[in-house]
């Protein structure tokens, strides 16, 4: 450890592994250390099934669950938007050659106690049971506007400047009612609260276009999920970093982040060894004095032996319960994956319900999600603190990721990673720097 590095990355959570890959690709000399023996940190996948039961202090699973090693259960499951940032990163970095993806079969939104498919095109808008006849037409006109919209062609803006006018103004222009605004903002644009209504409309238009472009790639939903679970992702980025010269050390205790004059980081100490560096990138668990608790997230992993009712027997699906539908301040997310993704034994499904904690009784808060699942064979509940860094890291050169939020997709994760990369390097990540023939040396 006596060499000097451009950057030391602490922890092998997905965000840290992506950053280490991006930094290595950008020509930085990277050392990546984790105190754990395994990849993934708090976003790890658990295998075999017995280990999951042990983790949550539950009696061992009986034989009806099949072979324990056929299970790979994500502690923080998330879906990838087919045209989203993470998939672009995977493709551009060549990490896709280590992974296989399957599209998620359904995308639903909750309204008035039941779930409906999220409508994304004109045909679905007219067939949807989320709206009455006149509202369907208004929503159809809104979707046509979004599909035809080109940010560089003001003629497609139709007398509405999306850079200065807010999203509420665009909804009003098309006469959309509150319910339609609700599922559009939360299930199509994937906002977590309603602050977006007062932001420039261009942001929401871009997000809805991302959803429909992602849907167009694979058809059934805009989401993808890796075979064998998300545990494959950190390892894919770790391989990428190694190909570009990154060094990895697992099971290495971190005793101190060494700070020099002016509060700037100069290295990382493990026992008597100190690795020198110019920058440190890490998750909140390594720097408790530099983060603040923003809130809590409740997650409930449910093992079920059937698809979610009213989803046309989809073997994988996402359901978003918008905040207002259940008189809350934050959405509830339900995701379902199954044996078709090689994460459960034949005939089994893994559902996850998550939301931001708002009361003293978090388990009651996720009840609307649990009620959608039908009979549950086993459930595991965890409540984790959500941390964010107290500063940008520019003075100390210690750049800290936020904890994983309650969302069931990766868009917010990617925004955090790209923001950290920009703060640390002073520039946007240049996707064109990556060798597209990556991995040829492994043939």
Automatic annotation (TrEMBL):
<keyword id="KW-0343">GTPase activation</keyword>
<dbReference type="Pfam" id="PF00996">
    <property type="entry name" value="GDI"/>
</dbReference>
<dbReference type="InterPro" id="IPR018203">
    <property type="entry name" value="GDP_dissociation_inhibitor"/>
</dbReference>
<comment type="function">
    <text>Regulates the GDP/GTP exchange reaction of most RAB proteins by inhibiting the dissociation of GDP from them, and the subsequent binding of GTP.</text>
</comment>
<dbReference type="InterPro" id="IPR000806">
    <property type="entry name" value="RabGDI"/>
</dbReference>
<keyword id="KW-0963">Cytoplasm</keyword>
<dbReference type="InterPro" id="IPR036188">
    <property type="entry name" value="FAD/NAD-bd_sf"/>
</dbReference>
<comment type="similarity">
    <text>Belongs to the Rab GDI family.</text>
</comment>
<protein>
    <recommendedName>
        <fullName>Rab GDP dissociation inhibitor</fullName>
    </recommendedName>
</protein>
């Amino acid at each position: 450890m006596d060499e000097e590095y451009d950057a030391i990355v602490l922890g092998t959570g997905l965000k840290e592994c992506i950053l280490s890959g991006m930094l290595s690709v950008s020509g930085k000399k990277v050392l990546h250390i984790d105190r754990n023996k395994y990849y993934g940190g708090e976003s790890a996948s658990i295998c075999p099934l017995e280990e999951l039961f042990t983790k949550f202090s539950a009696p061992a699973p009986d034989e009806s669950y099949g072979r324990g090693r056929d299970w790979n259960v994500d502690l923080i499951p998330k879906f990838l938007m087919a045209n989203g940032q993470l998939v672009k990163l995977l493709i551009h970095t060549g990490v896709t050659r280590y992974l296989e993806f399957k599209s998620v079969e359904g995308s639903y939104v909750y309204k008035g106690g039941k779930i409906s498919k999220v409508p994304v095109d004109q045909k679905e808008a007219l067939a949807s049971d989320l709206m009455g006849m006149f509202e369907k037409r208004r929503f159809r006109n809104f979707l046509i506007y979004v599909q035809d919209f080109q940010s560089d062609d003001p003629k497609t803006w139709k007398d509405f400047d999306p850079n200065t006018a807010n999203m509420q103004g665009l909804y009003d222009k098309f006469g959309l009612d509150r319910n339609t605004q609700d599922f559009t903002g939360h299930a199509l644009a994937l906002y977590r609260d309603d602050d977006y209504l007062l932001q420039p409309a261009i942001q929401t238009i871009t997000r809805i276009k991302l959803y429909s472009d992602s849907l167009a790639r694979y058809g059934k939903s805009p989401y993808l999920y890796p075979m064998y679970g998300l545990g494959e992702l950190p390892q894919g980025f770790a391989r990428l970093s190694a190909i570009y010269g990154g060094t990895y050390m697992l099971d290495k205790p971190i005793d101190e982040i060494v700070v020099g004059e002016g509060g700037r980081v100069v290295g990382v100490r493990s026992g008597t060894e100190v690795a020198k560096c110019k920058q440190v990138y890490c998750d909140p668990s390594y720097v408790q004095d530099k983060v603040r608790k923003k809130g809590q997230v409740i997650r409930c992993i449910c093992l079920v032996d059937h698809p979610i009712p009213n989803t046309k027997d989809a073997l994988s699906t996402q359901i978003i319960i918008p905040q207002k539908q259940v008189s809350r301040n934050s959405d509830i997310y339900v995701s379902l994956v199954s044996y078709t993704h090689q994460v459960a034994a034949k005939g089994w499904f893994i559902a996850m319900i998550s939301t931001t904690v708002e009361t003293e009784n978090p388990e009651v808060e996720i009840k609307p999600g649990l009620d959608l699942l039908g009979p549950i064979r086993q459930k595991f509940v965890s409540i984790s603190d959500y941390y964010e860094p107290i500063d940008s890291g520019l003075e100390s050169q210690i750049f800290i990721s936020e904890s994983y939020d309650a969302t069931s997709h990766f868009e917010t994760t990617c925004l955090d990673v790209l923001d950290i990369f920009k703060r640390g390097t002073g520039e946007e990540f240049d996707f064109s720097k990556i060798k597209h023939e990556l991995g040829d040396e492994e043939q």
